[in-house]
Amino acid sequence: MDTHYSIGYTLALVVGLVIGLAGGGGSILTVPIFVYAFGIPPILATTYSLFVVGTTSLVGSVNHLWQKRVDLRITAAFALPSFVSVYLSRRFLVPAIPDPLFRVNEFILPKDNAILYFFTIVMVLAARAMIRNDQPERGEAADGRPRYITLALDGLAVGLLTGTIGAGGGFLIVPMLVLLAGLPIHRAVATSVLIIAVNSFVGLLGDIHHTNLNWNFLLPFTGLSVVGIFVGMYLARFVAPEQLKKGFGWFVLAVAIYILSREILQY
Known about the structure:
Blueprint: H1 3-22, H2 30-38, H3 42-66, H4 72-96, E1 102-104, E2 107-109, H5 111-132, H6 148-165, H7 170-181, H8 185-208, H9 215-235, H10 241-265
Antiparallel strand pairs: 1-2
């Protein structure tokens, strides 16, 4: 096993570890890991990411459900519209993106590169949210009355994001659940993990029609990520998640800069 593969499998543990500790964030690394450590094409990497993120988050959500931290009514209000958009984006939108995306004189932007550029933008936004710890104490639903229509619209937007880049979007979901549903932060994190899990599997259903998955590779990688989430849930008793998220945010920002510089230098 070469160095890139060793690093990639080690980072699979990190993905699960961060999700277990902080309730989200680790999934933003899966696509770069697949692309740069294993040489998987970006579009296929987003499909693999949906499976890994979905399976890992599902394991975490079982623990949250057992502890009765998940608000199922809010989950339904946010997730049902999200399921629709994530499925449609994987089933129709991503396959319909032209390749190359556009051509201007000698400059050509392939579809795979466009997905990576979009992904780096999302990574920068995620890093900013984690570094600043953008978790509001109160919001529009401070009166205890969830804003269901706005939650549904946000669910549509998050589903489109998940479907396009294969990341869970927890860094967007958690603040929205606090602001618009009035959930305490620990319940927002738990509810977010369940939404991410189901969103990811719904998106994967949209890919099954036109994608062959390498299960011999995917299952061991996912297994390591699941091990990581168990370790993360255990360490969450002793580690302050705010500090972890801030440090991980800087790491995500560094990875985004690396991806952007690598892609630009190809031209």
